[in-house]
Amino acid sequence: MPPLSSSPVQFGKFIITSQVFYLTQLSMAFVNLKPLLPGHVLVSPRRVVPRLSDLSQSEITDLFVTVQRVGKMVERVFYATSLNIAMQDGADAGQSVPHVHAHIIPRKAQDLEERGGGDAIYAMLEGEEGDVGKHLKERNEETKSAGRSKFPKVDEAGRKSRSDEEMAAEAEDLRKAMEEEAGTGEGSPL
Fold first, then answer.
1. Does 40 qualify as catalytic in the annotation?
2. Which residue in 40, 101, 103, 135 is the catalytic one?
3. Residue 90: pLDDT above 60?
4. Which of 42, 75, 116, 150 is buried most deeply by CB count within 10 Å?
Protein backbone atom coordinates (compact mmCIF):
# COMPACT_ATOMS: atom_id res chain seq x y z
CA MET A 1 0.00 0.00 0.00
CA PRO A 2 1.33 3.49 -0.76
CA PRO A 3 2.28 5.86 2.08
CA LEU A 4 -0.46 8.00 3.66
CA SER A 5 1.07 11.16 2.21
CA SER A 6 2.05 11.78 -1.39
CA SER A 7 4.47 14.50 -0.29
CA PRO A 8 7.51 13.90 1.94
CA VAL A 9 6.83 13.81 5.68
CA GLN A 10 9.61 15.14 7.88
CA PHE A 11 10.65 14.44 11.45
CA GLY A 12 13.25 17.10 12.10
CA LYS A 13 15.55 16.87 9.08
CA PHE A 14 14.68 13.22 8.41
CA ILE A 15 12.23 12.01 5.76
CA ILE A 16 9.95 9.41 7.39
CA THR A 17 7.08 9.19 4.89
CA SER A 18 6.95 5.37 4.82
CA GLN A 19 7.02 5.14 8.63
CA VAL A 20 3.87 7.24 9.11
CA PHE A 21 0.70 5.33 9.98
CA TYR A 22 -1.65 8.12 11.07
CA LEU A 23 -2.08 11.72 9.94
CA THR A 24 -4.36 14.52 11.02
CA GLN A 25 -4.30 18.08 9.73
CA LEU A 26 -1.73 18.99 12.40
CA SER A 27 -0.17 15.77 13.76
CA MET A 28 1.36 12.48 12.69
CA ALA A 29 2.14 9.12 14.26
CA PHE A 30 4.98 6.94 13.04
CA VAL A 31 6.90 3.78 13.87
CA ASN A 32 10.27 3.96 15.58
CA LEU A 33 13.54 2.91 13.96
CA LYS A 34 14.75 1.30 17.21
CA PRO A 35 11.78 0.68 19.50
CA LEU A 36 12.62 0.27 23.19
CA LEU A 37 9.82 -2.30 23.46
CA PRO A 38 7.50 -3.78 20.81
CA GLY A 39 4.96 -1.17 19.73
CA HIS A 40 7.05 1.88 20.74
CA VAL A 41 5.83 4.62 18.39
CA LEU A 42 6.15 8.40 18.16
CA VAL A 43 3.57 11.17 17.77
CA SER A 44 4.65 14.58 16.53
CA PRO A 45 3.18 17.76 15.10
CA ARG A 46 3.49 17.96 11.32
CA ARG A 47 5.09 21.39 11.60
CA VAL A 48 8.77 21.05 12.52
CA VAL A 49 9.31 22.97 15.76
CA PRO A 50 11.76 22.10 18.54
CA ARG A 51 9.81 22.92 21.70
CA LEU A 52 6.32 22.33 23.03
CA SER A 53 6.05 26.06 23.78
CA ASP A 54 6.50 26.74 20.03
CA LEU A 55 3.20 25.03 19.20
CA SER A 56 -0.10 26.83 18.75
CA GLN A 57 -3.02 25.93 21.00
CA SER A 58 -4.62 24.05 18.08
CA GLU A 59 -1.43 22.06 17.50
CA ILE A 60 -1.13 21.16 21.19
CA THR A 61 -4.75 20.03 21.33
CA ASP A 62 -4.40 17.94 18.18
CA LEU A 63 -1.08 16.48 19.33
CA PHE A 64 -2.47 15.22 22.63
CA VAL A 65 -5.75 13.98 21.13
CA THR A 66 -3.58 12.04 18.65
CA VAL A 67 -1.42 10.69 21.52
CA GLN A 68 -4.60 9.49 23.24
CA ARG A 69 -6.01 7.82 20.08
CA VAL A 70 -2.73 6.19 19.09
CA GLY A 71 -2.10 5.08 22.68
CA LYS A 72 -5.47 3.36 22.83
CA MET A 73 -4.77 1.53 19.57
CA VAL A 74 -1.21 0.54 20.51
CA GLU A 75 -2.37 -0.79 23.87
CA ARG A 76 -4.98 -2.97 22.12
CA VAL A 77 -2.76 -4.18 19.27
CA PHE A 78 0.23 -5.05 21.47
CA TYR A 79 -1.89 -6.56 24.30
CA ALA A 80 -0.53 -4.04 26.76
CA THR A 81 -2.03 -3.21 30.12
CA SER A 82 -0.44 0.24 30.48
CA LEU A 83 1.49 2.88 28.54
CA ASN A 84 4.51 5.07 29.07
CA ILE A 85 3.96 8.42 27.39
CA ALA A 86 7.09 10.54 27.48
CA MET A 87 8.30 13.80 25.98
CA GLN A 88 11.79 15.28 26.19
CA ASP A 89 11.28 19.00 25.62
CA GLY A 90 14.64 20.44 24.58
CA ALA A 91 18.21 19.21 24.19
CA ASP A 92 19.01 19.49 27.91
CA ALA A 93 16.04 17.22 28.65
CA GLY A 94 17.45 14.56 26.30
CA GLN A 95 15.59 15.49 23.10
CA SER A 96 17.72 14.12 20.26
CA VAL A 97 15.68 15.38 17.30
CA PRO A 98 14.71 19.08 17.51
CA HIS A 99 11.09 18.36 16.61
CA VAL A 100 8.45 18.04 19.33
CA HIS A 101 7.50 14.38 19.80
CA ALA A 102 5.89 12.09 22.32
CA HIS A 103 7.01 8.50 22.82
CA ILE A 104 4.19 5.98 23.32
CA ILE A 105 5.47 2.72 24.74
CA PRO A 106 3.07 -0.15 25.45
CA ARG A 107 3.77 -1.91 28.75
CA LYS A 108 2.92 -5.24 30.37
CA ALA A 109 3.50 -6.60 33.85
CA GLN A 110 7.15 -7.52 34.43
CA ASP A 111 8.18 -6.61 30.85
CA LEU A 112 11.49 -5.15 32.07
CA GLU A 113 12.23 -7.37 35.08
CA GLU A 114 15.55 -8.46 33.55
CA ARG A 115 16.55 -4.77 33.37
CA GLY A 116 15.66 -3.98 36.99
CA GLY A 117 11.90 -3.43 36.78
CA GLY A 118 9.38 -1.18 35.11
CA ASP A 119 11.20 2.08 35.84
CA ALA A 120 14.14 0.91 33.70
CA ILE A 121 12.30 2.45 30.75
CA TYR A 122 13.34 5.93 31.91
CA ALA A 123 17.05 5.12 31.77
CA MET A 124 16.48 3.54 28.37
CA LEU A 125 14.78 6.71 27.08
CA GLU A 126 17.49 8.97 28.51
CA GLY A 127 20.42 6.81 27.38
CA GLU A 128 21.87 5.89 24.04
CA GLU A 129 19.07 3.39 23.43
CA GLY A 130 16.54 6.21 23.29
CA ASP A 131 18.60 8.54 21.07
CA VAL A 132 16.23 8.66 18.09
CA GLY A 133 18.23 11.35 16.31
CA LYS A 134 21.45 9.36 16.46
CA HIS A 135 19.74 6.23 15.14
CA LEU A 136 18.13 8.09 12.25
CA LYS A 137 21.40 9.83 11.39
CA GLU A 138 23.27 6.48 11.42
CA ARG A 139 20.65 4.94 9.15
CA ASN A 140 20.90 7.84 6.70
CA GLU A 141 24.71 7.61 6.66
CA GLU A 142 24.63 3.84 6.15
CA THR A 143 22.13 4.21 3.32
CA LYS A 144 24.25 6.91 1.63
CA SER A 145 27.48 4.91 1.96
CA ALA A 146 25.83 1.81 0.53
CA GLY A 147 24.12 3.71 -2.25
CA ARG A 148 20.91 1.81 -1.43
CA SER A 149 18.82 0.72 1.52
CA LYS A 150 20.32 -2.02 3.73
CA PHE A 151 19.94 -3.55 7.16
CA PRO A 152 21.97 -1.56 9.70
CA LYS A 153 24.30 -3.29 12.15
CA VAL A 154 23.02 -4.72 15.42
CA ASP A 155 24.08 -2.55 18.37
CA GLU A 156 25.81 -3.80 21.51
CA ALA A 157 22.65 -3.69 23.62
CA GLY A 158 20.88 -6.14 21.31
CA ARG A 159 18.49 -3.59 19.80
CA LYS A 160 18.86 -3.41 16.08
CA SER A 161 17.76 -0.79 13.64
CA ARG A 162 14.92 -1.96 11.48
CA SER A 163 14.91 -1.79 7.71
CA ASP A 164 12.73 0.65 5.81
CA GLU A 165 10.70 -2.35 4.63
CA GLU A 166 10.11 -3.60 8.20
CA MET A 167 9.01 -0.16 9.34
CA ALA A 168 6.74 0.34 6.32
CA ALA A 169 5.09 -3.03 6.98
CA GLU A 170 4.50 -2.16 10.63
CA ALA A 171 3.20 1.29 9.65
CA GLU A 172 0.71 -0.36 7.29
CA ASP A 173 -0.49 -2.75 10.03
CA LEU A 174 -0.88 0.13 12.47
CA ARG A 175 -2.66 2.27 9.84
CA LYS A 176 -5.24 -0.52 9.52
CA ALA A 177 -5.53 -0.73 13.31
CA MET A 178 -6.15 3.04 13.47
CA GLU A 179 -8.90 2.63 10.86
CA GLU A 180 -10.47 -0.01 13.13
CA GLU A 181 -10.31 2.48 16.02
CA ALA A 182 -12.01 5.08 13.79
CA GLY A 183 -14.86 2.63 13.33
CA THR A 184 -15.53 2.90 17.08
CA GLY A 185 -16.27 6.63 16.79
CA GLU A 186 -12.94 7.61 18.31
CA GLY A 187 -11.82 9.72 15.38
CA SER A 188 -10.44 9.13 11.94
CA PRO A 189 -7.33 9.78 9.92
CA LEU A 190 -7.22 12.50 7.26
1. no
2. 101
3. yes
4. 42
